Every structure is written in structure tokens, then in C-alpha cells.
Amino acid sequence: MKMRFNCAAAVGLAAIFTGLSATSAAEVSVQIQPKTFPTGRGGQLSVTVTGGKFDGTPSPRVPDDVILRPYGTSQNIQLINGQLSQSITQNFIVSAREPGDYTIPSFEVRVNGKILKTDPVSFTVTAGSPPPGLSNPSGGIQGQPQGGGTADATASESFLKLEFPPRARDHLYVGEMAPVRIKAYFPAQSRVSLQSAPRPEGEGFTLHNLSEEPEQSMEVVNGQQYRTVSWFAGISTVKAGQYPIHIALDATVMVPERSSSRRMRPPSFFGNSFFNDPFFDNFFDNAFTQLVPHEITLSSNGDPLDIRSLPSEGRPENFSGAVGDFTLGSYRLPADATAGEPRKIRVTIEGRGNFDRMSAPILEPGSEWKTYTPKTEFKPGDATSFSGSKTFEFSAVPQAGGKQEVKLAFSYFDPSEGIYKNLSSPAIPLKVDGTAAPSPSPSAVAQATAANGSATPTAGDPGQSETEKPPVDLAPPRLTLGTGLPVLTTRAARPLLWTLIAVCGLLIAAGFVVGNLRRRRSDPHRIAARRFEHAEGEALARAESAATNGDAVAFFDAARRALQTRIAAAWNRPAESLTVAELRHRLPSDSPAMSVFRQADAIAYAPQATLDQFDGEHWRSILHEALSEVSNRPSSSPPSPQLTLTS
Amino acid sequence: MKALHLIPILLLSFALPLLGAESSTSFSKGNEALASSDYQAAIDAYENQLKESAPTAALFFNLGNAHYRLGDYGPAILAYEKALVLDPHAEDIRANLRMARDRATAFEEHSVPFWMSPFFWLSLEEWALAGMIALVVLAIVSVARGLAGEKFSRAPQRLLVVSSLTLLLLAITAVASRHEELDRGIVLKSGAKVRLSPFATADVVATLPAGRTIQIESEHDGFYKIENGWIADGDAEPVYALTGSGD
Fold first, then answer.
1. Interface pTM, i.e. ipTM
2. pTM score
3. CB pairs under 8 A between A and B
């Protein structure tokens, strides 16, 4: 029964789709609902095609002040007066920055390979002030969520919150990095489209390492359910003072027009009916209510943050701006060195803090070394890059020979204790070969610094910031252009190189094959074999003919010749060198070959005595047996020439 | 015997586009600009010459000098490296390259095992050329032997085959052991960003100084894949691309 129902359903569906495909020519229409709305809100532009499908997404052209954002597609199948019709609608949210009358001009839509044109469609944007709490271009939603029965009020329930990890102090230091969680709350029943990532507004801080993929979850605040979107980031303070942390976020919130849905709700006959259940709220909202878009800007309204300057007291000379809690990780110092020759130094700093402002540890004794701009690599330990490790690799050149003790030194400010701290590696004794460093000169260091585009911690090198012209010690330019020779290894020539290699390979293979063929053709053994084959073939043909004609003399003459040839080929001997004695010695006396030879001799010497008894068919089969026998017999027996076989 | 005629034709067809008497007008202009310390004009003239004719060691050498004078050590190092591909034993190129590397603090660390040192007696280009010559000689011997048979006496045949095979084997070993050099690139700009993926918006995992040698593994949509990420093709260039801006 169930199977039968399924079959019927399948047939029905097939009929529906067949009917749909056979519908009349496609038509396209556009409409905006509502046609009038205030700034800060939007209307829904629907481009509907009936009797066909869009080829791609329609792209209406809009006036400059109009904002258009795609808002999904919907399909509708209708049965009207027994006729099926299918329509597909591409929706957009349309809004405008300024009040006024706007017209979206006619635009082309490609449907089923044909181009259709829409009618122009107009709408009006009024200067209606946004409802309390809703943003305008210069403001944002602030404060805690408010209750309300309208769509505007629902949108205004959205808000933004910053969460800092608990800390023992209520202030930050300039340059300090503080991890923060930025959390946007939207009403659970709304649909949200984010138009920007969180961005800092105001002064005193910058936002770093914002997580690319925000987390989403549901949360209940003050008894109301919210959809939350969270980012992790680091807030870096840039100057001292009292600054509120302002973070802003743009979003489009689609909220149901509750007032209209409630008007359509079935009337209650029993006072507090079951239709007042929140479940039916959602059900009827979704079924009958139009979603109203709101362009909003959420903004955090944090309390002013106390940002303090770093203390000047106790600041180490080599302090370069690192604020946090760090340790010296792995490091590599040279085991030997020669004055003037660069050595690679590698060191890793681990911990938590402002890695982006951190400079490389210095190599001590600084007066004995010139160091160059380091290559850095940062491995974050968390989503905000607040913790992790930073590896510096730089070149250092000893300036003079002699014995010294080298170490790496690094200082930072610890904000939790409010003091500067120093880190250093154990000192390693090092013997530097040579006397004074011939190069690079101080200007070379300056040039290297300029070329690398950043400040270099070159302790003991006061001239590092100077930019001098390079000394004129380059080898002079060449005066003649020279000849452009074929270059095989360039990226452009490589396909040609491979082609040439392939052609040479083919030529080598072809030469090898042709040479082998020629050699085979001129091989004396092969030539002899071919001759034997030819002679044997001729003799056999004569024997066959003689056997058919009953000519015994001709048969045995030809048979002996064929056998002789086969034996000579098989034993690798000239036919002329075979003797009767040898044949008798190497072939059994009752063998078919010996029978043929004996009979041939008999006929040669007494032809009349044997002619009457000649049975051509019988001797033909004996001859073939003899040939097979000779072919299979090994040829290793030593020859014993005594008599020449008569021919 | 017709096949024998094909070999020189093939070689000529390969070499002809790269040979020939080139017009050196832009090169001369570049030299004049270089002499009058107008380094940018010199660079422009040398780049024009690169578009007009086949590259030469002199052209890249002078281009490197012009970049060096401007303090653009990344492009200078790249030009000197390219010049060395074309003229591998030129002491003036090597000297200027060393100076540019010193200025850019882009030192090269070479440590060649003793057993491999013979493979460094010649440049990669020279090894490739030697290998190709050996291969062509083998092909000629093979075809001549096939066509002429016993008329081609065995003694010179064996001598040619053994010497060509030895040379070919050496060339293959040298190129195979140094093949990574063929994919070397030079960082052109200071602070060139190495990104996690080949997109301009991808996370930066490292920055490289100008003149640093990188190993290019592959190319994708305007980015080169290197050891620890992707670098934009405007920030680095392969050495073995002997045109003005890669080939």
C-alpha cells in the first residue's frame, strides 16, 4: 500500500514538474515593500521571475545614495484555475542615506538564456528620526537592552559589550596589550547581517589581531534570549590619559513587524487563550509577519580607562618598549668568530605581552659587535596573539680580535609589578680571530639599516642613523653589451631544453634500432640460415611434386637434398662436409632419415629394382618424420668425415 | 642520412632567437645616465634594452650597479645574480654582488661537502650545456652508427661514446645535486611580507629583508610559494628568469 502511494506521489510530482516546464513564456516583475520608509530603515526589493529561472543573480543599478544588499531567494509554486505556475524571487534590502524620492531604473535580467527587462520602481525615504536607541551615522546603540513591542524597539535591543579578563589593577600602561572579547547581542528572533568587523573609535588605543571567524551562540540576558557574536582581539594603549574604549560595529537587523502580526492573529474567545503562548507568537510571526530591515551601528560604551605612562625611573638603557611578562627562550651564540666576518645569532623570547612592539635582544659587549636588522618570526599562543613566542635572527660582526664573553640581554616592563626587568643569557667565553674588522664600515651599517627599513638595535654604533652615500668602490660598469648566448637553464628555456633532450633521446634510440636491424641483416649465420631455408624449401617442393606424380627418382633426389640441408642447418655445418659414416654414427639405423638415405642410395644405384614398389604417400610422411627428427637431434657429436655423401 | 641534417637545424632554431647582433642604443643611454649619476634613468634604459634584445651579463651587471647606487640592494643583488648566470666566472660581478650582499646584510652561507666540490667548478648553465653537448654527440654517434653501419670505424665510436657518457653522467649528477639553485629567488623589497596563503589579505607569518635568497617552490595567482608561506611576486623574483621582470 505504501509502495503504491509512493508511486502515485512520484507520478504526481513528475506531472507537476512536467507541467511547470511546459508553462508559458517567462515574465519578470519588481516591487518594493514598503514603498515609503524612514532613513535608517529599509525596504525589500523583490525581483520575481514567473515561468523560468534566473541565469545568475540579477544586479540592479541603483542611484548613488541608495544602498542595495542581496537578501536571498525564495520560490513559490501555485495552482490557479487548474494551471500550475512557478515563480522565483531574488530579494534585496534597499535603503538610502538621505531622505528623498528614488527610482531604481529598468535593468536587464537573464532568464532561461533570454534577456528580460524590468520596469522602473520608485520608493520614498522620509526624514523620520530613528527610534530611541537606534543609531544614526554618528552614534550607536548604547546601554542595556530595552523592552518594546515594535520592530524598531526590537532592533534597539541589540547592543555591544566588551569583556576584559579579570585583573588586579584598574589601569593600563602605555604600550601594554590587553586581551578583550567583543560581544554583540542581537534579539533571538531577528535575522542579522554584519556589515563590518568591530572597529576602534576614539583615541588612546588601537585594536590588534581581531579574530577572523567570530563565535556565535545563544544567551539569555535579563530573561530575554539573544543571539551573540563574539570576537577576540587585543587592545593596545598608545597614550596616557583617561580614554573610554569605543568599539563600533555595523549590522543590518531584520526584525518581524510585531504589531501587524498581532493584528492578524486569531481572536481570543477565552481571554488568556493558548494562542498567547510564545510558541504561537513565533509561529504566527514567521507565517504572517513581514521582516523589517534596520541598518544599525552598535557601539560599546565603556567606562574611561586609566592609561598611565611608563615610569622613567629604573628604565634600562636597552629598553625598547616591550611590556608584559617574558622569558628568554632558546638562543644560539657563535662558538667561534673572526673579526669582520658576520655570524648568525638566533634568540627566542616567550611570554605574554605586546610582541608587536618588541625589538631584538642585544648582543653584549655591544661595543665589540655590530648587529644588523633581525628577521623575526612570531608564533601566537592564543587567538589574540597576546601570548606566544617571537624569534629573532640577526647577523652580528665582531669588530676586533681577542677574547671576550658574549651574552644576550633583554629588558621589558612588567605592568603587574610596575617595574622594569632584565633578562640575560649566561656569558659564553669566545675567542675572536683576527685583529681589526676590515668591513663593513659604519656607513655600511647605516645603509643596511636603511635598506631594511627599520631601526636596528646596534649597541655601540652611534652612527647607525646616518645615511651616507655608498663609497665608490664598485667594479665599474661594462661598456659593451656583449652577445646574448643561448641560456638553457632559464625558466623560459626549460621547455625547449626538455624538448631538445627528448629529441636527442629519440635519435639515440632510433640509431640503436636502425643499427641493430642492419647488423641482423648482415649476420653470416642468419644469411646461411636463410639460404638453408630457401634450399630446403625448394627441395621439399620438388619432393612433394615428385611424390604426387609417382616419380621415385626425382622424389628421393629431392628428399635427400632437403634432409641434407636440414641436417647441415641443425648441426651448423656446411652440407658438403656431411659424410655417410657420420650420419650412420649419429643417427639410429632405423631412423626415418636413414631410411630415406638408404632408399635414395638404392634408387641411385639400382633404379629398376625399386621403382615398382614406390609408394609416394608413404615416403612423403617418412620424409616429414625424418625432417622433424633431424631438427630435434642435438648437434654436439664430433664429426668423423670418411665418405662424401652422394648428391 | 636526412636525420643527420635535422640536428644542426634544431640547434640553430633553438639558438637563433637568442643570438644575433643586437641594437645597443638603450644600453649606451643607460651607461651615459649611469656616468652622470642619473641612476633611475639608467635603470629605465637598461630595462628597455632588456625588452629589445636578448639578455647579456653586461646588461644585468650595469643594471645591478645602477640599483646599487640608488641603495636598492634587493634588485641590485638580483641583477648581479642574473649576470652571474650568464657569465659565471666574472670576478667583477662576484665582487659587486658581495658588496651588495654586505650592504643588504643578506649574507650567503655556502658549505659544500668535499666530494661535491667538483660539481661547483662549473656553473649550472655550463653543466647543462656540457650535458646537452654530450647528449647531442651521443645522438649523432648513434644515428651515424645506425646509418653507416660497419663503415663507421669502432675506435673513434667507442671514444666518443665513453667520453660523452662520462660527461653526461657528470652533468646529470651536478645538475641534480644543485637543482634547487634553479628555483632561487631574491627578495626585492625590504620588509616583504610572507603570508600564510596566497591572498593579499592573508595573515603575515614573517617579513623578509631585501636581498634575502628564497627558494621558490611553486607559483599561484601572483604569489610565490616559499618555505614558510607565500610572497607576492612583486616582492621577489626568480634568478633564473632572465628578463626584466621574470619570464
1. 0.79
2. 0.39
3. 200
